[in-house]
Specification:
This is General transcription factor IIH subunit 2. It comes from Citrus sinensis (Sweet orange). Helix content is about 30%, strand content about 20%. It is α+β, with helices and mostly antiparallel strands. The longest helix has 19 residues.
Length: about 325
């Protein structure tokens, strides 16, 4: 009862929020859910890119009983992640509530296999710290934390939503075949390849085999082509080229009468001067030199992922073509 109303209810609530946030920041990634109880690890959902299917399966299996086997869980996820290509990240996030692990063999050998398979394991504990969990995270390059309460647990799990930095040794460049399917018409009737059901006016058509799928991103069940939309690629792109942190502006720059335009935020157009015309806290982009308030700074770096000042300069500069 240290988590109200129960540990299972708190974990289910935060996992649901994490799944939605994960796919919002990693629209081309995939998640699979594994449950561990009665000494057995079971695959709840296969690797997939549909947040709703994962959440639906999770909410239908909230029971917990028996001992926990960390080794059986690692063996199962190692088999699931072995199919991930070399350009992808192989990560495991374990939410562990038990104070022990009941394993059928040597768990140290399993940890070594995970390390050799380049699987990064992280653990968030709901009880006291365990040596085996800490050893697992240290060997595989993950992180280990113990939640103090519900708010701390939410903070810890959300830290795993952004994509990790790629390691140059493992990030091998590859060309990936992708399809951009067309949205089906409102009155069209066809059989969905995902659920084997007749759907009316819902879904997308695979450009290669013309099969119907319900949602994107996903892999075509017929030809195996990875199906995405252009917004998914755009939302994944900003993690490769993040905006550099803005520089803090000194009060002298805001009080300069020659630069009246700098006394307003370029983003929200609100004044950067506090009561009494005293300069408040603000930041400036190192490239375009535009000033922003702290609220716009947070919004630009966490949600927008584009500097409005740099974008305005890019669109305002005309391209002149000369004939030779």
């Amino acid at each position: 009862m240290d988590f109200r109303p129960s540990r299972m209810a708190v974990v289910a609530k935060q996992v649901e929020a994490f799944v939605r946030e994960f796919f919002d920041q990693n629209p081309l990634s995939q998640i699979g859910l594994v449950t561990v109880k009665d000494g057995v690890a079971n695959c709840l959902t296969d690797l997939g890119g549909s947040p709703e299917s994962h959440i639906k399966a999770l909410m239908g299996k909230l029971g917990c009983s028996g001992d926990s086997s960390l080794q059986n869980a690692l063996d199962l996820v190692q088999g699931l992640l072995s199919q991930i290509p070399s350009y992808g990240h192989r990560e495991v996030l374990i939410l562990y509530s038990a104070l022990s692990t009941c394993d059928p063999g040597d768990i140290m050998e399993t940890i070594q296999k995970c390390k050799e398979s380049k699987i990064r394991c992280s653990v968030i504990g709901l009880s006291a710290e365990m040596f085996i969990c800490k050893h697992l995270c240290q060997d595989t390059g993950g992180s280990y934390s113990v939640a103090l309460d519900e708010s701390h647990f939410k903070e810890l799990i959300m830290e795993h939503a952004p994509p990790p930095p790629a390691i140059a040794e493992f990030a091998i460049a590859n060309l990936i075949k992708m399809g951009f399917p067309q949205r089906a018409g409102e009155g069209s009737i066809s059989i969905c390849s995902c659920h084997k059901e007749v759907k009316v006016g819902v879904g997308y058509t695979c450009p290669r085999c013309k099969a119907r799928v319900c949602e994107l991103p996903t892999d075509c069940r017929i030809c195996g082509l990875q199906l995405v939309s252009s917004p998914h690629l755009a939302r994944s792109y900003h993690h490769l080229f993040p905006i550099a942190p803005f520089d803090e502006v000194t009060p002298l720059c805001l009080n300069d009468p020659r630069n009246r335009s700098r006394s307003t935020c370029f983003g929200c157009q609100q004044s950067l001067l506090s009561s009494g015309n005293k300069p408040g806290l603000c930041v400036a982009c190192a490239k375009c030199k535009k000033h922003f308030c702290l609220e716009c700074d947070i919004y630009i770096h966490e949600s927008l992922h584009n500097c409005p000042g740099c974008e305005s300069l890019r669109h305002s500069n005309p391209i002149v073509a000369n004939e030779g």
